[in-house]
Amino acid sequence: MQMQRQDVVFLFLLTFSCFPAFGSGAIGLPQAELDALARIGDKVGKPWNYGANPCTAGPGSKDIDEFENYVNCTYPPNDTFCHVESITFRYQNLQGMLPPELAKLPYLQRIDLARNYLNGTIPAEWGSIRLVNIIISSNAFLGQLPTSLANLTNLIDFRISDNSFTGRIPDFIKNWTKLEILAIQGSGLQGPIPSGISSLVKLIDLRISDINGTASPFPELDKMTSIKTLILRNCNLTGSIPPYIWTMKNLKTLDLSFNMLEGQLPRTFSKPKAATFIYLTSNLLNGSVPEGLRKVSNVDLSYNNFTPASTKDCQDVNVNLFGSPPTANNLSGAVPRCLKDFDCPKSLLSKFYINCGGGEVNASVIGTHRIATFTEDHDSGGASRYVQSGEHWAFSSTGNFLDNNQEPDVYIGKNISRLIMPNSQLYMTARLSPLSLTYYGLCLWNGNYTVKLHFAEIMFSDDESYSSLGKRIFDIYIQGKLVWKDFNIVAEAGGTHKAVVRNFTANVTTNTLEIRFYWAGKGTQSLPNRGTYGPLISAISVESVTCCGKSSSVQHKLHTFLFAPIVKTNNQYAEIGSLPFENRQFTYAEVLSMTNNFQRCIGKGGFGTVYHGQMTDGTHVAVKMLSPGSIKSPCQGSKEFQNEAHLLMRVHHRNLVPFIGYCQEDGNMALIYNYMAQGHLGTHLSDSNSDALSWDRRLRIALDVAQGLEYLHNGCKPPIIHRDVKTANILLNERLEAKIGDFGLSKVFSDDLTHVSTAVKGTFGYLDPEYCNSNNLTEKSDVYSFGVVLLQLITGKKAIVRISGSAPRSLIDWAIPMVVGGDIMDLIDPKLEGNYDIKSIQKVVEIARACTSPKSIDRPHMRDVVVELKEYIGNEKAFESESAPENGGCSGPVLTTSEILSCLSAR
Description:
Layout: E1 4-11, E2 13-14, H1 31-44, E3 63-64, E4 67-75, E5 83-90, E6 110-112, E7 119-120, E8 133-135, E9 140-141, E10 157-159, E11 181-185, E12 205-209, E13 216-217, E14 229-233, E15 237-239, E16 253-255, E17 260-264, E18 277-279, E19 284-287, E20 298-300, E21 305-306, E22 315-316, E23 319-320, E24 351-355, E25 361-364, E26 371-374, E27 384-389, E28 393-398, E29 412-414, E30 429-432, E31 436-442, E32 447-455, E33 473-478, E34 481-488, H2 489-493, E35 500-508, E36 512-518, E37 536-537, E38 539-544, H3 545-548, H4 552-563, E39 566-568, E40 573-575, H5 588-594, E41 601-604, E42 608-614, E43 620-626, H6 628-632, H7 637-650, E44 659-665, E45 668-674, H8 681-685, H9 695-715, E46 720-721, E47 730-732, E48 738-740, E49 747-748, E50 756-757, H10 769-774, E51 776-777, H11 779-795, E52 800-801, E53 809-810, H12 811-820, H13 838-851, H14 862-870, H15 876-882, H16 897-906
Parallel strand pairs: 5-6, 6-8, 7-9, 8-10, 10-11, 11-12, 12-14, 13-15, 14-16, 15-17, 16-18, 17-19, 18-20, 19-21, 20-23
Antiparallel strand pairs: 1-2, 1-4, 3-4, 4-5, 22-23, 24-38, 25-26, 27-28, 28-31, 29-30, 30-37, 31-36, 32-35, 32-38, 33-34, 33-36, 39-40, 41-42, 42-43, 43-45, 44-45, 46-49, 47-48, 50-51, 52-53
Helix pairs in contact: 9-11, 9-14, 11-13
C-alpha cells in the first residue's frame, strides 16, 4: 500500500499537521522527529513555534505567493504516527547551515532549500538517509561533496547549481542510476566530467556548466534515450560532436557552447524531432552550415569557423551566425561580413552617446562640465538581432536566455527602485544579453578615442538574501582586444544600484569602433531568477581625443593644480607638493615583507584591499593595495591613489588616520597607515557586537570625527572635502579614539571656488541629496554625511534601514519623521540599556537634524558642530587636557588656520 501524504504550511510560526487517509482524526509526529525539527530549525535559522498542539492544525495551501515554505508528512499504514517525508524552504533568505539532524528523520525523502543564504558544507550524515531529491541550488555552500552521498542509490533529482563548492565532480555519481535530473551549473566544482556519467541512462535533464579543469573528450551519453535537455556549456570539451546527438528523438534543448569542439556538422543534417533550441556558439566548428538547421526555431552558431559562402549574413532565418566567418572569428576584432559593405555619409563623426535600453536623455559627461544628449536605444533586441540606429552606430545581440520562462526573451532590464546618484537617468534601464552584445560606432573620423562605459547592477539586491548572491561576470573587448577579463559590476561599483564608469582608449583606423561585451559562462545563472546572467550595459560615451580631449601636458598641469595644496608662510605661498617625501616611499619588496606576502586581509575599500603588516621596528600597519581593476582604469584608481598619497603626506591631525608612507613600483601601488586595532565604527554599532559602546564614548567619537572634518575644511589651504564620510571610514585605535580614514574620494579646492562641479562619488545612504541633484560639491556635503553618522551613533542602525515587510530606506527617511513626531525614545539604540542623559541625546538629535537639512545653506559648518558637541562632553577642562596637541603643537584636534600655517612654516 502506497504511503499517504498531506501538505503542511509553515508561516513564520510553524505548526504541523498530519491526517490519516481514512479520517480517524489528527495524529502527531514522534517526539524524536519533533526534537530533530527543532534542531534543524535552529541550524538553518528558521523560527519555529511548538507552543501549539502539532496535531490539531489543519492543512493549508502549499503555494504562498511564489515562495515555497512547507513540510510534507506521510502516514504509513499500520503506524500510530505520521512522519516527515519532505522539507521545502525556498526563497526564505535563511542564513544558517545545512543540518546533519536530517538523518534523524528516517522517512525523509525530499529536501529543497534552494535560493536562500545558507552556507557551510553538505553534512556527511545525509548519506545515511533514503533521499530521493536534493535541491540546494543558489546558496553559498562550500567544500567538497562528501563521499557518503555515493550511498544515495535511490536519488532521482540532484541540483547544486550556483554555489561555491570545491573539488572535482565525483565519479560516485555513477551509483545514482535512477537519476532523472542532474544540475551542476556554476557550482564551483571542477572537471572533467567523470566517465561514470554514462551509467545515468534515465536522465531526462542534464545540466553541467562553468567547470574548470583539464580538457576532456565528449562524454558517452548515447544510452540516455529519454533526455530532453542537454547542457554541457563551458566544460572544456574537445573533439567532435558525436553523431548520436542528432538522433536523440526527445532532445528539445542542446547547449554545447563555450567549448573546444571542432569538425563539421553532418551534411545530411536531420534535426532531432523535438529540437527547439540548439546552441553551439564559441567553438571551433567549421565547414558549411547544414540546410536542415534552418528548420530549428532557435539556432546559435556564432563565433565559429564556418565557411564564408554559407554565412554571408549575420542573421539567416532562425540561425545566428554573427562572428562565425574566419575573418571575424575568435574575437579578432575584424569587421563582421554584415558590416563590410556599409556606406558612410559624407559627414563623419567624432563622438556619440547611447542610453542603452532607454530613451533619449541629457546627462553630464563624466570628467567634464559638458551636457550631452544620449540617444535612445529602445529596440527590444533578440537572439540574433542586428539593429542600426541612424548612420553612426549599431548593435548586435546574440543568444537566448535559457530557463527564464519568458516568451519572448527580455533584453532590456529596468530598474524599479529609487536611484540616488548623478546622471541617474542613465541607469534606469540597461541592455542585457545572454551571450554577446556588440556596439558599433560607424562612420567615425580615424584617430584616438576615449570610451566611457557606464554600468549599474539593477537586477540584483544588496540585502543579505539569496538574490544578493548573484554574480554577473563578463569580458569587455574594444577593437577586438580584451581590455577587461571577468568584469564584475557589483565588485567595481561597491554594491548594487551604484554607478561605476570605466574609461578606455581606442584607436579607430577603418572608421569603425567595436565595443563587445562577452559572456563566457562564468558567474551565477539563476539568481535572483533563472536566466539572470550575461553582459549588462547602461550607457556608452565615445569622444575623439583629438577633437574633444586635452593634450597630456594640459592634463598633467590640471592634475598638479588639483593635487598640490598650498599653504601661506610668513612671506610667500609655498606649494606643499615640493616637500620631500622620498623617505616615506617603500619598495614593493618591503611591502611584501611587512605583510608576509599579504597573508592577513583585514578589509576591502573602494579601490583596494587592506592587509595587516608589521614593520621592522615592530610598528603594526595597515597596507592598502590598489586593486588590479582600478589600475586598469587610470581615471579612477590611479587618480585616487595619487590623490590620497599626496593628501596624507600633507595633513596631520590626531583625528585623521596617521599616514606612514606609500609604494609605487611597476604598477604596484600601496598606501601604508598606522594600524587601528579596534577596526571601524560600523562593527561596534552592529547588532552582532555584544560589547556596546557607551553613550559617553559615542559622544567622544562624534567629537573626534567632527574635529577631523573641521581640520580638513578649515585647517587646510585650500580646503579638503572628504566626500565619503561613513562609519566604515571612521577607525578606532586601542583607546577607542576615532580617526577618519580613506581619502580615496577626497577633493581639494582652490580658494576662488565655493563649489566644484564633479562626478558624484560616495556611499548610498550618506550622500547629500543636493550634491546628487546638482553635482556641486561643498564642505556641506561632508556635514550631511556626518549627520547620518550622528544618527547611527544614536540608533545603532545602518545607513540603509531594512524592516521586515517594507522596502529598504535611508536612515534619514526612517528617523527624521520620528524626530518630527516627538518619538525620540523609539530612536535610541536599545543596546544602551537606558544608560544615557536624555537631554544629551536630544541635543545630538538636534545637531543631526540640522546637519541633514535638505538644503546645504541650512546646515551648520563643522566648526559650529564642534563647539556644540564640546558643550555636552562633560568636564570641559578634563577633555581639553586629554586632547593636548601632538607633535610639538602642530597636530592638535582643533587648531586655527593661522596656528596650523605657523606650525608648518616653522618646520
